[in-house]
Amino acid sequence: MLNERLKVIEVGPRDGFQGIGPFIPTEEKIAYLERLVAAGLTEIEIGSFVSARALPQMADTPELLTACARIQGVTPRVLVPNAKYARRALDHGAQNLVFVLSVSESHNRNNVRRHPDESADEYLEIVALLPDGVKMRLDLATSFDCPFEGRIESDATLRMIEKLAPALPEAEICPCDTTGKAVPDQVGQLFRDASQSFPDVKRWALHAHDTYGLGLANVFSAWQAGVRIMDASFGGLGGCPFAPGATGNVATEDLVWMFERMGVETGVDLDKLIPLSSAAEKIPGGQTGGRVRDALTKKGDCVA
Amino acid sequence: MLNERLKVIEVGPRDGFQGIGPFIPTEEKIAYLERLVAAGLTEIEIGSFVSARALPQMADTPELLTACARIQGVTPRVLVPNAKYARRALDHGAQNLVFVLSVSESHNRNNVRRHPDESADEYLEIVALLPDGVKMRLDLATSFDCPFEGRIESDATLRMIEKLAPALPEAEICPCDTTGKAVPDQVGQLFRDASQSFPDVKRWALHAHDTYGLGLANVFSAWQAGVRIMDASFGGLGGCPFAPGATGNVATEDLVWMFERMGVETGVDLDKLIPLSSAAEKIPGGQTGGRVRDALTKKGDCVA
Questions:
Q1: Which chain A residue has its CA at the smallest distance from B145's CA?
Q2: What is the reported pTM?
Q3: Which of B76, B101, B169, B228 has the fewest CB atoms within 10 Å, i.e. is most exposed?
Q4: What is the ipTM of this complex?
Q5: Cβ contact (<8 Å) for B258 and A214?
Q6: Residue numbers of B annotated as active site
Q7: Domain B7-297 CATH class label
Q8: Could you report the per-residue pLDDT of B75-96, keeping only the tens digit for each?
C-alpha cells in the first residue's frame, strides 16, 4: 500500500467536545486547534452552528471560526443541522459545511424534530444556496445502526444517497456509525455498493465509533472498499449526545498508528499528537478511548 | 457470511492467567473453566507444562487437566515449551498439546534459551513421539513483530512453517501477534501466502493481541483470508510475560460480538460470558481489556 495516502478529519473539537458538560474556555479550544494543526491535523471539524440551548458547548463556534483565520494551514469545518444555521455559518465566513441528517426516522426526529425526508429537503436547500467555492460534507448518521431502531439495512442508506448525491456529486458523503455497532463486513459492503451505484461521487468518508471495539476494524474494511477519508477524534473523545451509549469516536492516534504501519501516509506526527491525546484525558467531563496512547506512554507490566 | 462458523479458542486460563502474580487458587481456576464451558467456550488452553519457577501461576496445570475429566464437553489444551514437558503433559493424559516457539531469535532465546531452529527440532521430536489421537497446535510467536527486533518480515515466518508443517500437516498452525503491533494488511497477506504455499495445512489460526487497538481489525483480516480458528481471552486478560508491554489478548466477548453480528456462529453465549469477563476485572493482579463488556453493562453518559 506504499504511496497511498489517507485524509484524516479531526472531529474531536466538535464530536469530542460537544457532549462535555463543563464549558471548555474558548482560548483553550483555540490552543487545541493550534496544536492539532501543528501535529498535521489540518482538516478539523471545529464546532457546530446549532442552538446554544441544545448544545451549549458549541456556543463559541463563531469565535473559533474567526480564530482559525489566524491559524496557518487549517481548514475548519462546521456542522449545521438545517438551512437556517447553514446561512448563519456562511454569514460568519464558513467555507466548509458539514450537514448531518439521520437515515433512521426516530433518531432524526430525536435529533432535529424532523422526518429524514424533511432534513433531506434542508440539505437540497443548502446546496442551492451554497456560494461558489464553499465545500460540503454530508454526514449520514445511523447509516448502519440506530439506538432506537437497531440495525439499519443498507437499502435505507443507499436510498438517502440516491436522493441527495445528484444535487452535489462533489460533496463528501460520510455514512456514520453512530452507535458503534456496525461490523466490518457491513461497512465494506455498503461502500462497495455505494461507490458502484453512484460513480459520480468521488469523496466517500467513514465516521466510526469504537464503542464496541470495532472502530479500526470498520475503518480497515472501509479502506479496503476504497474509502480514503476517515473521521477520528484525538484521545478517542466523543460520542453523540443523542445516541445512548454511543461514547467514543475512533481515536485519531490509533487510526494514524494503523495506517502509518501499513505504509499509508497520513501527514500526522504521532509524537506531537500523543501529548494532546493525553491532555484530552484531563478535560473535565471528557471521556477518552483508544489504546495507542497507553501503549506508547505506559510501560507494560510484563518486562522480560 | 451466513452459515459460516468460527472456532474460538479460549486462552484466558493460560495466556491470561500466566502473567498474574498472586496465585489464583486451583478451585477458582476450575470454577472459571466450568463457567467458560457453560458459556460455550469448550476449547480452552487451560495452562502450561513449564518450569514452576519460571511461571508459578501455571504450577497447577496437572490438577486442572485432571479436573477437566469431570467437566462435560471441555477440550483442554496445554502448552509445552519443549519435548521434556511434552512428555510430562502426555504422561498426565493430555490429548491436545500446544507447542510454542518464536520466529525471532532474540525472543525465542529470551523465552526458552534456544535458537528458533533448536526449538523447531524440539517440535519435530514431539511430533515423532505423539501417540495416536493426540492433537497438536503449533504457535509461532513473534510472527509479525518482535519486542526486541521490531517488524518481522513474512519470509521468516513462512520459512518456519515450511520447515515444520510437513511433519504434521494436520496440526493447527497459529501465527501469534505477540506485541500487538501487527497491522491488518500484514496479517491478511501472511495467511494468504501461507495457505497458498502450504495447501496441505487445513487448520490455520490467529492469536491476536489488542495492545494497540488492532485486535479485531487483525482478526477480521485473518477471517477474510480464510482463517476460521481464533484465540481470545475472556475479559481481554493477558499478555506475554516475556514481551515488554504486550498486555491484552483480544477479548473473547469483543470477538464473539463482532462475529455474531456478522452472522457467523461461534456457539458462545454472550449473556453467560459477560459476567465472567466482569469477574476477570476483579482478579487481583489481572489486567483486562476490550470494549464490549463496558458497552453492554454500563450506561453511556449520552442519554437522549
A1: A261
A2: 0.94
A3: B169
A4: 0.93
A5: yes
A6: 240
A7: alpha beta
A8: 999 999 999 999 999 999 999 9
- Encode burial over A269-299: b for 16+ CB neighbours within 10 A, e otherwise: ebeebbebbbbbeebeebbbbbbbbbbbeee
Say if CB B219 and CB B261 are below 8 A apart.
Answer: no
pLDDT, tens digit, 9 for 90 and up, residues B1-59: 556 899 999 999 999 999 898 999 999 999 999 999 999 999 999 999 999 998 999 99
Residue from A68, A174, A176, A240 carrying the catalytic annotation:
A240
For B239, name the nearest residue in chain A, comparing CA atoms only. A302
Is A240 marked active-site?
A: yes
* Orientation angle between helical segments B116-129 and B154-164, nearest 10 degrees: 30
Q: Which of A222, A284, A291, A298 is nearest to A250 (CA)?
A: A291
- HSE-up of B198 (CA within 13 Å, CB side)? 24
Integer angstrom CA distances of residue B250 from B213, B234, B255, B264? 9, 8, 7, 18
Q: What is the pLDDT of residue B286?
A: 85
Q: Distance between CA atoms of B6 and B13, rounded to whole angstroms?
A: 20
- Residues with pLDDT less than 70, chain A: 1-3, 239-247, 299-304
A302 and B241: CB-CB below 8 Å? yes
Cα angle for residues B195, B146, B84 (degrees, 5° grid): 80
Asked if the Cβ–Cβ distance from A304 to B110 is below 8 Å, we say yes
Residues of chain B below pLDDT 50: 300-304
Q: Which of A183, A247, A270 should be substituted to probe chain B, the one whose Cβ sees the most B Cβ atoms within 10 Å?
A: A183
Which of B112, B185, B293 to probe by mutation at the A interface, max A CB count within 10 Å?
B185
Which residues, 6 or more positions from A59, have their beta carbon under 8 angstroms from its beta carbon? Answer: A23, A52
Residue ranges of domains in chain B:
7-297
With a CB cutoff of 8 Å and minimum separation 6, the contacts of A159 are none
Nearest chain A residue (CA) to B256: A212
pLDDT at B131: 97
What pLDDT score was predicted for residue B240?
52
